[in-house]
Q: What sequence folds into this?
């Protein structure tokens, strides 16, 4: 067929009758073509070009059969496992759920145990504690909440001392705080500050601590504050006593300030020009007395 179409492409005429013709004028015999193909296949099956090809075809067939067997076995095994999983799915799911619930319950118990061991009980809050300041010989009682810090406690102490007419002038920034458990013998101030304590019933607190929450402070505990505190009434006051030699100017009059007798104070208020010297000078200096009398007469004129 290819030969005929190739000839028509070159000459455009029939090789037998020499008439003009094209490929479109050809009529294909499909049945004849199929017959040719069948005969060619039969020849290929019985007539090999080489014995090597026959050997390769045999090995290829064995390999394909082995792969088919492998995949068939794999498919059967998969089918068995799938059926087993579908059959036992509910039982395994229930078992897994029970194990998950058991682990969650164990975790909850451990968490509750940790909280009970590290957090104070809420039924004892707020706690009532005693605050002692040995240097001031003062003991106070306060109600502390769980969130109260040492800064809040300092404010309470300052306010309470002010109400007792014992106002603290300045808080000691280097003060130390010692927490004593209830029913514990309170050590002396020297023992606290010398770091000689070996008991676990006394704990030194930091400046930024929250006693109730961090140290599980119980009712009846005592907090000792060791520091140098000065009360407002013990601070030095400014002196208002005027010296004898100081001069006080009033208008156009000049007066030496001393402890004036009442009669001289009245004379000064009436407008007399008064210069008062110490008593010894007044008694022993007649010139000063004459000057005083002359000034009085001049003021009257």
A:
């Amino acid at each position: 067929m290819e030969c005929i179409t190739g000839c028509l492409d070159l000459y455009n005429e029939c090789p037998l009758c020499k008439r003009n013709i094209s490929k479109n004028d050809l009529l294909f015999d499909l049945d004849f073509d199929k017959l040719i193909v069948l005969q060619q296949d039969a020849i290929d099956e019985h007539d090999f070009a080489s014995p090597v090809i026959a050997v390769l075809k045999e090995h290829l067939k064995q390999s394909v059969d082995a792969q088919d067997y492998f995949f068939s076995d794999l498919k059967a095994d998969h089918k068995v496992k799938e059926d087993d999983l579908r059959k036992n799915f509910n039982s395994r799911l229930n078992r897994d759920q029970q194990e998950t619930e058991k682990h969650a319950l164990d975790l909850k118990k451990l968490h509750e145990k940790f909280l009970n061991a590290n957090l104070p009980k809420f039924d004892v809050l707020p706690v009532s504690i005693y605050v002692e300041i040995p240097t001031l010989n003062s003991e106070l009682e306060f109600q502390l909440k769980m969130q109260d810090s040492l800064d809040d406690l300092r404010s309470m102490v300052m306010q309470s001392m002010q109400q007792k007419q014992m106002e603290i002038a300045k808080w000691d920034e280097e003060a130390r705080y010692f927490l004593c458990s209830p029913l514990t013998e309170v050590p002396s101030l020297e023992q606290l500050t010398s770091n000689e304590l070996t008991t676990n019933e006394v704990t030194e607190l930091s400046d930024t601590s929250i006693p109730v929450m961090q140290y599980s402070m119980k009712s009846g505990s005592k907090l000792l504050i060791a520091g140098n505190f000065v009360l407002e009434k013990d601070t030095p006051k400014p002196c208002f006593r005027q010296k004898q030699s100081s001069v006080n100017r009033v208008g156009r009059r000049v007066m030496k300030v001393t402890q004036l007798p009442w009669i001289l104070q009245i004379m000064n208020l009436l407008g007399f020009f008064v210069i008062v010297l110490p008593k010894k000078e007044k008694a022993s200096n007649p010139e000063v007395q004459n000057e005083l009398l002359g000034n009085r007469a001049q003021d009257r004129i």
The first strand starts at residue 127 and ends at 133. The first helix runs from residue 2 to 11. Residues 247-300 form one domain.
